[in-house]
Amino acid sequence: MAKKNTATPSTEWNYAASPESTAHIRLEKKYQLFINNEWVTPSSKKYFPTINPATEDVLAEIAWANDADVDKAVKAARKAYTDVWSKISGAERGKYIYRIARMMQERAREFAVIETLDSGKPIRESRDVDVPLACNHFFYYAGWADKLEYAVPHKKPEALGVAGQIIPWNFPLLMAAWKIAPALAAGNTVVLKPAETTSLTALKLAEIIKDSGLPAGVVNIVTGYGDTGAAIVNHPDIDKIAFTGSTNVGKMIQRAVAGTHKKTTLELGGKSANIIFDDAPIDQAVEGIINGIFFNQGHVCCAGSRLFVQENVADLVIRKLKTRMESLYVGDPLDKNTDIGAINSKKQLETINHYISIGKAEGAEIFQSDCSIPSKGFFCKPTLFTGVSQSHVITQEEIFGPVLTIQTFRTIDEVIQKANNTPYGLAAGVWTDKGSRIFNLTTKLRAGVVWANTYNKFDPVSPFGGYKESGFGREGGMHGLSAYLK
Amino acid sequence: MEILKTYKIFIGGAFPRTESGRYYPLVDAAGNTLANVCLSSRKDVRNAVVAARKAFGSWSEKTAFNRGQILYRMAEMLEGRKTQFIEELIQQGASKPNATREVQEAIDCLVYYAGWADKYQQIGSSVNPVSSSHFNFSALEPMGVIGIIAPQESSLIGLVNFIAPIICGGNTVIVAASEPLPLCAVTFAEVIHSSDVPGGVVNILTGKVSELAPALAAHMDVNALVSESLGELDKPLALACVENLKRHITYTNSTDQGLQRITDLQEVKTTWHPIESIGGATSSY
What interhelical angle do A108-119 and A172-185 show, nearest 10? Predict the structure, then answer.
């Protein structure tokens, strides 16, 4: 008879570190502006560092475009539109976009590693979500280029001209794809500005654009801070502004283009409700809550940041949620075991911590998992607040971090009212086993995307965008084309 | 002795006077007073928005078929009062043939959009073949409460051509009538009133565009503002719309009709649901 093991089993179930190699990536020390298929020194002569938020090490120096640089990019885009891009057939445009998609696939791992280095997101997410979705977005829209007349019934599809596109730091490459692919398919040329903390993958994409033989000036990438973005928004020869970012900046852009001919699409903030009914498959729902708020460190505009749990299962759900949170790995984004990587920037970490202190000061009860976080870099423990109400700041304002608020409800009417009681309307989640209830709720929730018994799923064919102050216009799918057509 | 009509405004299915007590006289070419028209105030706008928001839930949840029937009913009621509208248009300066044509066009417009009510959804929606085990579809939903500045150059057709597609799509509306030609708007409210259109779905105010349009543009519970170009007012209106990211649509042609007039005031909602993919039969049966 084997001797019974009486020793207390270890509670430390750590995985061995499993970091993704960075040996095969190619990064320059200094990046110039990408204008007219050439690397151009900024006339500002200014550069700024981009850092790895997990280590605070400088990855590269990035050119800072001023008004003159943006003007140069817009002129290149206009010339490319007039001379080349508006003259070639849709089928030919499509071939260029297909080629970009294929070349991105070939270099997918390099892109994933650079994305993780520059943004702090876990390699598992950049490798399995961001980069494949970005490639697929190009592949999807490539096929639309010669079929536009099917997308807009009874209208002649016509490109707008030059599109100015400003993208955020939470999904740097994916947002570049969401912006560039439909714009090119519809026959527009592009001036794109990545976010200042995450310029690298857009600049790597510029390498591919150059390699692909895309006519010069069709895509121009200008890097910089908010002043560079403002130069794009205010440039008189731009026909379209597409912006993804905060609602505040979205409103600034909308004010700036008021009274001009510029069309806009805005994909802005959110404070999305994730609703758990008592008949939901609880374990799956808990996974959905985790994915809804902790995916990409909560830097997701459609994050399920307001959790509503039916009162009679609230204790159970919260207990399971806390247990699950304890098992999340927070740390090195390059480690394949990591669930939650680094907060994108020091500034954002300060914003999140500010909201956490507001939550505490408002009297909400805080729970944070008992994990250790690296001493260097910007990290935040997964956090949830109970004992909150609709009037709390942390349930009203977008935190854009791994911070969840939990409220309970009794009736379906109550939860619909609470869920809709926000200026935002980007997304919502519903968890229940009852089909008729799903359809009742999904039609009543005023939000552009509703995930039923799932959360945070994205696909090139699936239109995405908000109601109310979460912006207007859709990206993705057939509906995403109309944003770039007259 | 002829009994003259008091031209009042239309809010929540009732015909109040403006709360402000203000009016403006409308005179015909010969200088005769046609009516003392309500000069509606910002408070009237706010009351109308409350009524429109209240009506939005039940109107948007009516079946598409039912909304179509109600729009058709509006056409029937307008047909029955054709003579009255023709007379009113002539009073406001139209020739008889033009007045007759305009009323006929308004009736046709209502019939046209009555037919669209249960059809636009199929054209604007999609099933999206995502690369994961999910059923994913996008459908149109009404935007909500819509402010309309009716075209100024006509008394009836512009108004009807703006209202019909927007309520056809399940929205509720607050309409500022043509400032110089307001009479048919009020009489059209009587048509709406007798057409099974629930109170609050259409609210009609008369008064100064320069007062009503900014109030609608700045109201935080209005989801979109629709008008023709209003010249110098366009930019301040666009700026006022920013505060709640109101959709701001200016049409260049007040007589255009078509699907887009409906879909312009729709939101696209995408819904995801997992498809079970554990075990079970293969699909090759």
Answer: 130
Structure tokens at B67: 């909304």
Q: Which of A248, A242, A303, A294 is nearest to A273 (CA)?
A: A303
Identify the three-state secondary structure at position A386: strand
The CATH 3.40.605.10 portion of chain A extends over 30-268+470-482
Q: In the 3-class helix/strand/coil scheme, how is chain B assigned residue by residue?
A: CCCCCCCCCEECCECCCCCCCCEEEEECCCCCEEEEEECCCHHHHHHHHHHHHHHHHHHHHCCHHHHHHHHHHHHHHHHHCHHHHHHHHHHCCCCHHHHHHHHHHHHHHHHHHHHHCCCHHHHHCEECCCCCCEEEEEEEEECCEEEEECCCCCCCHHHHHHHHHHHHCCCEEEEECCCCCCHHHHHHHHHHHCCCCCCCCEEEECCCHHHHHHHHHHCCCCCEEEEECCHHHHHHHHHHHHHHCCEEEEECCCCCCCHHHHHCCEEEEEEEEECCCCCCCCCCC
The answer to whether B137 and B214 have CB atoms below 8 angstroms apart is no
Positions of A marked catalytic: 267, 301
CATH 3.40.309.10 in chain A: give the residue spans.
Answer: 273-458
Quick check: A113 and A22 in contact, CB under 8 A?
yes
ipTM of predicted complex: 0.94
Tokens of B214: 């900014």
pLDDT tens digits, B24-54: 999 998 999 999 999 999 999 999 999 999 9
**Average pLDDT value for residue range A362-389:** 96
CB contact under 8 A, A452 and B272: yes
Mutate to test the interface with B, among A139, A291, A459 (most CBs of B within 10 A): A459
Question: What pLDDT does residue A466 have?
Answer: 97
CB contacts of B131 in chain A (<8 Å) are 136, 459
The CATH code for residues A273-458 is: 3.40.309.10
Nearest Cα of chain B lies from the Cα of A180 at a distance, in angstroms, of 20
Distance between terminal CA atoms of chain B?
Answer: 83
In CATH, which of 3.40.605.10, 3.40.190.170, 3.40.5.60, 3.30.1360.120 is domain A30-268+470-482? 3.40.605.10
pLDDT in the model for residue A1: 44
Torsion of CA B17, B19, B21, B26, to 10 degrees: -50
Q: Which residues contact B162 (CB under 8 A, 6 or more apart)?
A: B148, B150, B151, B175, B226, B254
Residue of chain B nearest A426, judged by CA positions = B269
Averaged pLDDT for residues A119-128: 98
User: How many Å apart are CA A459 and CA B128, to the nearest integer?
Assistant: 9
Strand partners, B274: B134
Rounded-to-integer distance, Cα A329 and Cα B75, Å: 65
Residue A357 one-letter amino acid = S
Q: At what angle do helices A108-119 and A131-142 cross, to 10 degrees?
A: 130
Q: Which of A208, A222, A141, A137 is nearest to A171 (CA)?
A: A137
Measured CB to CB, residues of chain A less than 8 Å from chain B are 136, 153-155, 247, 250-251, 254-255, 258-259, 266, 268, 423, 438, 442-443, 446-454, 457, 459, 461-465, 467-469, 471-472, 474, 477-479
Per the structure block, which two tokens stand in for B193?
């009133």
State the Cα–Cα distance between residues A228 and A202, nearest whole angstrom: 15
- Bridge partners of residue A190, in order along the sequence: A163, A219
Kindly report whether the global pTM for this prediction surpasses the value 0.90. Answer: yes
Chain B interface with A: residues with Cβ < 8 Å: 123, 126, 128-132, 134, 136, 138, 141, 143-144, 223, 234-235, 238-239, 241-245, 247, 258-260, 267-274
